[in-house]
Amino acid sequence: MADYDVVVIGAGAAGLMCAIEAGRRGRRTLVADHANKVGKKILLSGGGRCNFTNIHAAAENFLSGNPHFCKSALARYTPYQFIEMVERHGIPYHEKKLGQLFCDRSAKDIVGMLMRECEAAGVVVRTRYPLEVLDGGPPFHLTGPEGPLRCESLVVASGGLSFPKMGASGFGHRLARRFGLDVTPLQPALVPFTCEGPLRELAAALAGVSVDSELACGDGVFRENILFTHRGISGPAALQVSSYWSPGQSVSADLLPGRDALAWLQARKAKRPRARLGTILSEALPARLVERFPGAWSRKATMQTLSDRDLASVAASLSDWRFVPAGTEGYRTAEVTLGGVSTEALSSRTLESRAVPGLHFIGELVDVTGWLGGYNFQWAWASGYAAGQVV
Ligand SMILES: Cc1cc2nc3c(=O)[nH]c(=O)nc-3n(C[C@H](O)[C@H](O)[C@H](O)COP(=O)(O)OP(=O)(O)OC[C@H]3O[C@@H](n4cnc5c(N)ncnc54)[C@H](O)[C@@H]3O)c2cc1C
Description:
single chain; alpha+beta; FAD/NAD(P)-binding domain; Elongation Factor Tu (Ef-tu), domain 3; 3 domains; 7-stranded antiparallel sheet; 13 helices; 31% helix; binds flavin-adenine dinucleotide
């Protein structure tokens, strides 16, 4: 029987980081993945350039049943520690916006770095290596393609449900439940909205139009672009609020963010009384949007014919446009899964199960979900690091 100190199930961001840290501490470590390659989501991420961290990452950027839970791990492994590793490996990177760090070349650089670190730490890495957990421990008994295995610590890093094509499975959630750990309700997040009826027709007519907006839904308020698509509404601001949305809820969009829309229209009326409303609006919004946007006002009306009441109505429809999405595109295109192994079942310092000593859950599998912008990888690195110090 193969005997390891640590077995990590899932060679994604969190699992590889945990294995590296355990290996560095001299623990005999196996990291096994059922997919044909390690780090498939890393390779796919950030449009192939991996937004590998966010320098502003803090607990406020995460959704969780316990908003304090992620603090301990995030404090002990900061974005700067990961940046130090990236720089040590000579990987060029840049800040794109809002603290988001991307590789200059390719996400392959990050996977290559993690593999070199695994090798240096003496970690055994196996792909196409599904494992079955036979019984709880410690020690834990497992069986895999080469027969039975035993380990003192078992780390489950098998990720969420999003992008099933990339190897996502419900394995970790099932295992958690089997060991008596609660799993909070799961939902696709960081995902485009789909629309039906007139809203879908509007979105399709505007497909490709992108506009700086402030979107609000529940506790989530984000200022970034939205993008109209043939199916609905996407773009970074829409993806961000999707994590705060539940079916039936409306989303409010300010299409003229950062300005007092009425005061602006009044000022433009004073300056250009003979200009058409559509012309004025096109100064701040894409012309196609102005043309199609629903509203009981005429784009052809000249500014001087519009009363303050008319302008207030135009301002309100653009600064608080409310729509009710029909749904989301689901796990097929969601970047992450909202919810996961309950934080109540785990130690925030070690990510170890309170009920089953030696059993750890890390990364996206846990009920800690980051905003768009490098936060999810930072959680994967930090939670992997935290578990890697104690297994
Ligand atoms: C298209 C896309 C783009 C993204 N871009 C970014 C970005 O730029 N920045 C960012 O911060 N986040 C991004 N994310 C989110 C980020 O990829 C995840 O949050 C992160 O990968 C989670 O890491 P993880 O290690 O927990 O899980 P994963 O990276 O999903 O790794 C889990 C691993 O477990 C394996 N596995 C699953 N089931 C089993 C099983 N039964 N047995 C063995 N192995 C198993 C999988 O094959 C996989 O390799 C993106 C996600 C997607 C889908």
